[in-house]
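Example 3.2
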Amino acid sequence: MLLAGLLTAPAQAQQPGKDPLILGAYVQGSFIIAHTPSIKHLAVSHPTGFELNLQKQTSGTAPWHAWYKYPKVGLALVYYDYHNPVLGQSYAASVYINKSFLRTRRQELNFRIGTGIGFFPVRYDLATNHKNTIVSSRLNATLQARLEYDVAVSPHLGLLLGLGLNHYSNGATTKPNFGINLPTVLVGINYHQQRPFLPTPGETLRGEPAGIGSNFLNLSASLGYKQRNESDDTKYLVNSVSIMGGRRVNRKSNLVLGLEGFYDRSLAAQLRDTARNQDRLPDVKKAGAFVGHELLFGQLAFTSHLGFYLYNPYKSNKFYYERLGLKYHFSDRLFGSVDLKIHRGAADVIEWRVGVKL
């Protein structure tokens, strides 16, 4: 009787100060992209999955809600069965933001992007599971991108259809690290606490933030660790220090420019193994300059950098690098971030960063 009442009851008016919730359950079908010849032997099964998620519809209680036209923020739990004993199953938890491009009384077209942690009980082992060149650690980062279409089938229930891409990788912490890419088709049901969505009364765009046009300086340091190849299971420490200047150019964006130095101890081990002359080895330390952008969501920012090495005696990689990350301000001065440094599309290291804003 309670379920019948939920399915037939008219949409309730939103209570002031409370963000409506959406509960979803989806089934997923996928295939594995053979993005390198080293995983072609594993790209033969069709993984299937199931997802439970809880979303909160932002309603204007923070200024950035209106700037992004009231996106949803959510938490998802995702299970995959790869239908291959070499890969086994995976379990993941992720947080995400879900932005509407089309919203009417009965329909929504949304784009969702998120990140989190995935757990793989079955992983690469040289002695017992050497064919698993995709997953070499039980814990992996996950990235999700998805296009979703939600159409109302009752005042509170929506049928959801979606196309997405799920990615799992450990960021070169352990080798081999080819990672797994899963294009996904999904179908499911959403329960909407409020439909159609209405912003909280009186909570509208509150003008421009005070910081637009202001400059800032960041000082930070990071650490990470990585394994250089499958035969050497040592975890080598990687450090960096950086100084970065930036300017807030509008409500949503900072533009940044910086200098940084790197010390990757795995390169010293690699150089000792490959150099013919052990007496005069080049310096493995590196220094670079970068430009970048920060997309702002209140205290949280999505960061993207493009860097170029200015000091690079040991040419272990290309002359440029990229970085993607999430940065969070704990206070006006103190921030932390988790970044993925990339060389030509391949993960180099996950950086755990702390810094101060001056």
